[in-house]
C-alpha cells in the first residue's frame, strides 16, 4: 500500500457547510407575511396629540372604515388629510358617510383640549349622521 | 465546426443566485414600513340626529364634570354630591344593581379637560363591563340638556 501524495490522513475531516438552499424559501415566507400584514400609515396629523390614557379601550379592527379626526389643544381640527374649521365638519363628514355608511370616526384629541371643543365636534358629527365614533386613547398598560 | 452539429445551442437557464438577495431586499422594505400598532379607542354610538328618546327621569343618574375637573353625581330629587372617581364607581355600581335600566348622563362643562372627561367615561365603562351594562349618554354642555343646573361651576 503506497500512500500517494498523502491522501489518507487518519480520520477524514467532514466538510462543514451550512445549507443555504432554503434561504430564499424562508425569506419569501417572511416576505409574504410582511406584505400581507402591512398597513401603510395613511394620514399624518399636522400636530401629534398627546392622547389620554384609558383602561377600557377596544382595538378598532377594520382600518378602511376609520376616518381620523384630530383636535389640537388650540382647537385646530383635521379630518384625514385636510384642516377644516368647525362649521365645515358636518359637510365633510356627510360626504364620507355617503361613501361608506359603516364609517367610524376616531376622534384623536389632545388630553388638554377643552371639552367644549370636543363636544362641538360631536354635535357636528351627529348632524352629519356620523354616529359611530370612538375616542382614541392609549391603553393604560403601555 | 469540429463537432459538426450546426449552431451550438447555448444552455438556457435563468440565474437564481440573486433570488435570495432580491427577496431579502423586499423583506427589509416591508419590515421597515410596517406599522403594527393598531388604533385603539373608546367606541360609542351617538343617538341619531332628531327626536331624542324619552327616558324616565327616575332612571337617570347625572354625572357632572365642572370647569375645574371636579366630578359630581346626582339622582332625581337629590342634591348633587361631589365624588372622587372610585366613589363614583362604587355608587354607580350600587345603583346599577338596584336598577339595571339606569342611564348615566355624562355632562361636562365647556372648560373641563378632555382628559377628565375620558377618565370618567373610562371609569363608567369599566363599571359597565362588569355588570353587562352600557347605558351611557353624553349630554351637551349647553342648551336644554341641563336637568337642574350644574354643580359648582365658575
Structural write-up:
The complex is a heterodimer of chains A (142) and B (154). Chain A is α/β, with parallel strands linked by helices. Helices cover 27% and strands 20% of the residues of chain A. In chain A, strands 5-4-3-6-7 form a 5-stranded mixed sheet, with helices on one face. A two-stranded parallel ribbon of chain A has the order 1-8. In chain A, strand 3 and strand 4 form a beta hairpin. In chain A, helix 2 crosses helix 3. The longest helix of chain A has 15 residues. The mean pLDDT of chain A is 82. With 154 residues, chain B is an alpha/beta fold. Chain B has a domain of 85 residues: Nucleotidyltransferase, domain 5. A 5-stranded mixed sheet of chain B has the order 4-3-2-5-6. Chain B is rod-shaped, with a radius of gyration of 32 Å. The relative contact order of chain B is 0.16. The C terminus of chain B is likely disordered. Strand 2 of chain A pairs antiparallel with strand 1 of chain B, so a sheet runs across the interface.
Q: Fill in the CATH topology of the domain at 57-141 in chain B.
A: Nucleotidyltransferase, domain 5
Q: Give a quick account of the main beta sheet of chain A: strands, pairing sense, barrel closure.
A: 5 strands, mixed
SSE pattern of chain A, N- to C-terminal: HEEEEEHEHEE
Instruction: Name the shape of chain B in a single word.
Output: rod-shaped
Q: Please give the oligomerization state of what you see.
A: heterodimer
Distance between the termini of chain B: 106 Å
In CATH, the architecture of the domain at 53-139 in chain A is 2-Layer Sandwich
- The CATH class name of the domain at 57-141 in chain B reads Alpha Beta
How many beta strands in the DSSP annotation of chain A? 8
Mean of the pLDDT scores of chain A? 82
Shape of chain A: elongated
Q: Could you tell me the mean pLDDT of chain B? A: 77
Widest sheet: strand ordering of chain A:
5-4-3-6-7
- Structural category of chain A is alpha/beta
Percentage of residues in DSSP E strands of chain B: 15-25%
